[in-house]
Amino acid sequence: MREFMVELTTAVPEGTDPAEVDRRRAAEAVRAGELAEQGRLFRLWRPVGEVRSVGIWRADDESDLRSNVLGSLPLWPWMTAAVTPLQPHPNDPGPTG
Prior knowledge:
- This protein is α+β, with helices and mostly antiparallel strands.
- It contains two helices and four strands.
- The chain has one domain: Dimeric alpha+beta barrel (Alpha-Beta Plaits, 2-Layer Sandwich), CATH 3.30.70.1060.
- It has helices spanning 18-37, 62-69; strands at 2-10, 41-45, 53-59, 79-85.
- It has a four-stranded antiparallel beta sheet with strand order 2-3-1-4.
- The longest helix is centred in the first third of the chain and has 20 residues, at 18-37.
């Protein structure tokens, strides 16, 4: 599997029922946990003071990432994604703990 850095920004459409937003956010947390267990979601951060998320995701290719991984997120219809394919760096120290 390849790794991708993904910046996700969610914009809830005007007029969306708050109960629907809550339902999707709860389902999003469950789905993120499932993707982490599958090795598809490796790391996820939220920059301080921002509403976007930045993560390291794993997929066979960008099509698989968008269709089968990110596309399975309950909030995906409200998200925009900036996807950057990654490759190993020769000076990568590896996992740090």
